[in-house]
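Usage example:
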Amino acid sequence: MTPWLAAARAVGSEIAGRYADDVDSRARFPAESLAALKERGLLGILVPVSAGGPAADIADVVAICHELGRHCASTAMIYAMHQIQVACIVRHAGTSPWQQAFMQRLVHEQLLLASATTEVGVGGDVRSSVCALDERRGKFRLTKQTPVISYAGNCDAILATARRTAQSPASDQRLVVIPRADATLELQENWNTLGMRGTCSNGYRLLAEGEMGQVLPDAYADISAQTMLPMSHLVWGGLWLGIASEALSRARAFVRAEAKRKPGALPAGAGRLAQATGELQSMKSDLLSCLHQYEQARASEDVLSGIPFAVAMNNLKILSSEKLVRIVGQAMLICGLEGYRNDSIFSIGRLLRDAHSAVVMVSNDRIAANNANLGLVLRDDPELLA
Amino acid sequence: MSDPLKVRIRTVLKTAGSLQQGVEAIRDDSDLHAAGLTSHATVSLMLALEEAFDIEFPDRLLRRKTFSSIDAIAEALAEIGVRDEAA
Ligand SMILES: Cc1cc2nc3c(=O)[nH]c(=O)nc-3n(C[C@H](O)[C@H](O)[C@H](O)COP(=O)(O)OP(=O)(O)OC[C@H]3O[C@@H](n4cnc5c(N)ncnc54)[C@H](O)[C@@H]3O)c2cc1C
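Running the assembly step on the lines above writes:
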């Protein structure tokens, strides 16, 4: 186990787990766990050695998300969303002094990054923007109507998508780094949801000004294909696996207690538990194989931008979110009334509510429609071990 | 401008590209993505080019960069053996 994972495990079991119910019931930011992750230096681990970071792999981050997901899904989701933004900066930051200095700050100050991609008017179609960078003499202004920016009130900077210029078409986007201090956030909508309540994903009118050196040089289309999309689906896959594992862990404890009470008789829930364990295994295999695929592809922009890679990463998201909901549902059935109660040690309620965010968080129907379109030109994949 | 291959590419772009401006406003080296070619429309463009030139793009050419400009498309077509003369 890496020291990072060991540290995350300690944060998960000693802190995130302890406050998870309070975070959920009050829909409040999990300040204790984020402070602990910061204190242990876990926010900047992806930063390369050249910028003063420890250069952890994506796999390390996925493992941490999985660990945190077992204890507090909101904490895990915040950590995951933050690392998606860090990965975009690590891979796509330009040579501008501003961006280089910012990368170092990610380690030294353990900055927490939020994301403003979703926009009023285009919904979850994150590859289109309404708002645009208004550039004048090396400076920009931006106004964006955002239906959700998770933990915006607690972050240190926000990465926002926008059209490159006021004349650009909706798909010609850039990603800009906005320090929280340079942004005005006018609250428009409160986050009162079924689950993932601790992400505090309020809606805002975001107003910002800055220098053009804060705009990442790569087209957002490339950032999205090569980093944001695969990274999102991998880290989400990690924390969703954590939620599913925790649900089955409670179900297993329930079934085992039954078995001990009546030795020799197979408990009623044992068959269902075995079935759900099989589904968890396939969820884990999908995640690990896509992680492997990403690691193989990461050196080649062409492979990362290719259609087979995009289809595979999209499938990971659709399949693992569906499996998550099914597995947690199975756990609820196995634990029965004890699972349905909010105050029992076998309670599944919070896990079930958090799980349902997975299919909505970039709608599975939208992703399936993208895959249907890409499928029109997808080629056969005849070689098994290639 | 009079390169017959590129003229044919323009004809395909006109119907399949869903560009913001007309194809007339696009130079051979203009960035088609900056002109509004979305990833959804890129797939339609691939299919329309395959139909028009009676070819099939190999896997390695199925990426954004191949369709980033009229020049890039012409290069990719040449690479898979499409000749310059009008059919
Ligand atoms: C916990 C959580 C945290 C989030 N945090 C952030 C954040 O920090 N920053 C951020 O920018 N966003 C965030 N989001 C938003 C998220 O990224 C998605 O953009 C959002 O969930 C999509 O919302 P939507 O369903 O209203 O939009 P849409 O994707 O527009 O979907 C609307 C409806 O249309 C249907 N639909 C859409 N497209 C298609 C299609 N092609 N085919 C068929 N049906 C379709 C969908 O099924 C859905 O019913 C968060 C979401 C969640 C759940």
